[in-house]
Specification:
By secondary structure, the protein is an all-alpha fold. It is built from eight helices and no strands.
Length: 220
C-alpha cells in the first residue's frame, strides 16, 4: 500500500465526495416527497393521478437505473431535450427512489386500522384533515424502517452515475485506476468515502427506528 499515492489523490476524492453527498441528499429528499405524494394519490384513489403513480412505480421499479440514465442522457437530445449529467442523475434517482418510497409509505398507511379512517369520515373530516390528523401521523411512523432502507439504497446507487460521467466517487476511482493503476489505494479510498457517508447515516436512521418502535412520537 503506497500511502503517498493515497495522500496525493485525497483532494480529488474530497471533490467527488462532495458531489456524491450533494446528489444523494437531493435525491433522497425529492424521492421522499414525490413518493409520499404518489402514495397519498393511490391511498385516496385520486382520479388520473392514482393511475399515473401506479404506472411510474411499476415502470421504474422494473427497469434498471442504468437504462433509465442512458435514455435520459443520450436519448433525450435526439428530441431536443438536453440535460446535464448531474441533472439526469438527480431526476433518474429521484423517480426511482420515489417508486420505492411510495411502496414504503403505502405499507405504513395500510397498517392504520380502517375503523379509524371510517370514524374520521363519520365525524365529517375532509380529506386534507383526514390526511393531516390520521393518515400522516400514524403512517409516517410506521413507514420509517422502510424509508430508512430506501434512503441507504439511494445513496449506494449513486455509484451507477459513473455511466454518464458524473464526477462522483466511483467514477473518480475508476478514472484514477485507469490512469495510474494503483488499484488497492484508490479502492481503499472509495470504500472509506462511502463508509463515511453510510455508517453515520445508518446509525442515525437506526436510532430513529428504535425511537419510533418505543412510541416516543406523539400524534397530533
Amino acid at each position: 500500500m503506497n500511502w503517498s499515492v493515497v495522500a496525493q489523490s485525497v483532494p480529488l476524492f474530497a471533490h467527488a465526495f462532495g458531489v456524491t453527498l450533494r446528489l444523494s441528499a437531493i435525491s433522497v429528499i425529492l424521492a421522499t416527497l414525490l413518493g409520499l405524494a404518489m402514495a397519498l394519490c393511490r391511498e385516496y384513489r385520486v382520479p388520473l393521478l392514482s393511475q399515473l403513480s401506479t404506472g411510474i412505480e411499476e415502470l421504474f421499479r422494473n427497469t434498471p437505473l442504468l437504462i433509465q440514465l442512458f435514455f435520459m442522457y443520450y436519448g433525450f437530445p435526439s428530441i431536443g431535450i438536453k440535460l446535464s449529467a448531474q441533472l439526469c442523475a438527480v431526476i433518474g434517482m429521484s423517480i426511482l427512489g420515489a417508486a420505492y418510497m411510495s411502496g414504503a409509505f403505502q405499507g405504513g398507511f395500510g397498517g392504520i386500522p380502517r375503523v379509524q379512517i371510517e370514524s374520521a369520515r363519520a365525524l365529517g373530516l375532509s380529506v386534507p384533515q383526514l390526511i393531516r390528523y390520521v393518515t400522516l401521523p400514524q403512517g409516517l411512523t410506521r413507514s420509517i424502517p422502510a424509508i430508512a432502507a430506501n434512503a441507504i439504497f439511494i445513496v449506494k446507487e449513486t455509484s451507477v452515475f459513473t455511466v454518464i460521467a458524473v464526477p462522483e466517487l466511483t467514477n473518480t476511482a475508476r478514472d484514477l485506476i485507469g490512469m495510474y493503476y494503483h488499484t488497492n489505494e484508490y479502492l481503499l479510498e472509495l470504500v472509506v468515502a462511502y463508509a463515511i457517508i453510510l455508517i453515520p447515516m445508518s446509525v442515525v436512521l437506526t436510532l430513529l427506528e428504535r425511537r419510533v418502535r418505543r412510541g416516543s412520537f406523539r400524534t397530533v
